[in-house]
Specification:
Blueprint: E1 4-14, E2 17-26, E3 32-39, E4 44-51, H1 57-66, H2 68-79, E5 88-91, E6 94-97, H3 98-123, E7 129-133, E8 140-143, E9 148-152, H4 160-172, H5 181-190, H6 194-200
Parallel strand pairs: 2-4, 7-9
Antiparallel strand pairs: 1-2, 3-4, 5-6, 8-9
Helix pairs in contact: 3-4
Length: 208
């Protein structure tokens, strides 16, 4: 975690499941509570607590109890997301073996490049460099100053239609850098079903 260092961890039971609570020291002004990554050992999501000052375990437990309704709601959302088991990978929404994934991944990235060129032509976007890299928190980005669109290499896990959505989203930023009404109006012309795609893509966020 950026600007955070792990202070200590402990176990905490919520709705009959044991969760690991990670307590971090942070440079932020206030404490923060969030649901973290899926923990395969406990078959449950970690709970993250961060604070600029030292907080004792009993105090953290009290904060968790006070915000239990919110935490349970967040856990419910997380549990609807897709989680892969050891030895599994995903390619275009289908769970396969890691070996099969590794054998196909470069060809699939080439496919994404072809789709990018197709939509860039429709959107009349020229002179923008396309790059790939692995990213944890976003599917793609547009650097306006450098005129570069960067796509996440993990796009290959998404169904084909969601890959198209991400490409169209970033191409639209060429014309409108923010997420204003103008942005979505332009995106709708390039990818009309963007609202459903924006909802559907959320369940894949814990796989990258």
């Amino acid at each position: 975690m950026k600007n955070k260092t792990l202070d200590y961890s402990f176990q905490f039971k919520i709705a009959g499941k044991i969760h690991i609570v990670n307590v971090y020291k942070t440079k932020n002004r206030y404490w923060r509570l969030s649901v973290g990554v899926y923990n395969t050992k406990y078959d449950a999501y970690d709970i993250n607590f961060s604070s600029p000052k030292k907080v004792k375990e009993d105090e953290v437990k009290k904060i968790i109890i006070d915000h239990l309704t919110w935490i349970e709601a967040q856990l419910s959302k997380k549990e609807k997301m897709l989680v892969l088991k050891a030895g599994e990978a995903m390619l275009h929404g289908v769970i396969i073996s890691i070996d099969e994934f590794n054998a196909k991944v470069e060809d699939e990235i080439s496919y994404i490049t072809v789709r990018y060129s197709y939509f860039a032509s429709i959107a009349k976007v020229e002179g923008v460099a396309l790059r790939y890299r692995k990213m944890k928190s976003r599917w793609g980005s547009f650097n306006k100053s450098k005129n570069v669109i960067t796509l996440n290499k993990w796009l290959v896990i998404l169904p084909y239609e969601l890959i198209d959505y991400v490409i169209c989203h970033e191409l639209t930023h060429y014309y409108v850098f923010n997420h204003s009404k103008e942005f979505y109006n332009r995106l709708a012309k390039l990818y009309p079903d963007y609202l459903n795609a924006r909802k559907a893509i959320k369940k894949y966020s814990d796989i990258v």
